[in-house]
Amino acid sequence: MKHLGFASIAALKQYIRYADAQNIDTHPLLRGLGLHENVLLSGEGRITGEQFQSFLSGLIALTNDPLMGLASALYVETHSYSLLGTIAEQSDNLEHAIERIPMFERLVGDMGTTEIERTSRYTSLAWHCNYDQPKVVPHMIDNVLASWTLYARWLTLSKAQPLGVYLARQTPSPELQKTYRRVFSCPVYFDQKHNSIRIAYEHLSLPIHTKHQPNTQLPLEGKARTELSQLRIGDETFKERVSRSIRAHLQLGIASKELIAQEHVLSERHLQRQLSAENCSYRELLDSARKERAMKFLRNTELSTTEIAHNLGYQDERCLFRSVKRWTGGTPNAVRSELNL
After folding, report:
1. 318: burial class by Cβ within 10 Å (0-12, 13-18, 19+)?
2. 308-334, pLDDT tens digit by residue?
3. Are the beta carbons of 45 and 9 closer than 8 angstroms?
């Protein structure tokens, strides 16, 4: 059975605030899941992913609202994102805040993973839900993408509109489509392959309006890495944990061995020693993560090879061509042409 990891109490409380506003009593639901009131007195702490998914399933039934995910996004606040929210507030601009999502989103929970795709015109944020209940997943996706949008507007004191929102869920009724467009203030496309939001390049430089505390960003990120190092999912191996960290950092176009080591509260030498004990190396894990990301871009996007190379942290597209040749024996164009055979 798939392990759903954990979810923060802070993430749970966003939905509870929504339920309270709708005069829905969630206490019986929480008690039935073993989430007693004293657990919710603080925004700190964690519950299991199974508990969180069951809570959302119960809440969906109680509300009978096809747009519960969108509606609950209105109750996002900084603490909904745990320490990641504080880091976002201390960022210089929207791009800097966005870049922290893949690295630190596990502090919010293991509900899903974020993938960043950069082009010369926009940055795309795709969210892949880890949960498995068909009734829950669309609501979670709606909540995540809408919460991102509303929180970004609050952080930048702007009414910046995404270029577009892309959702895998089936096209709803015209009336519900109007609600989606009203929340996101942009075109919303349904029946898509992925769930993502596109942000115009010029909006990435929007400054964060919250008052920065001097010299706090690095200590906050250090604290976040320490908290990440203490998270464990089931019988996950050290190799698997490092691989997950590399994939997250690679969203920024770079996966520094030094930062990965810091995330696991180890020296670079100790990091490699532990990987060697599992018969692998950092270089091998990085190469594997790059291959996975490159194949995804080549097969599922129209990004140019120059843009793909940039997304993988390569100096230029020649590095990409050499890597693809080593992985597949062919060229990037050959990989793409295979899809049209």
Report:
1. exposed
2. 998 898 888 999 999 999 999 999 989
3. yes
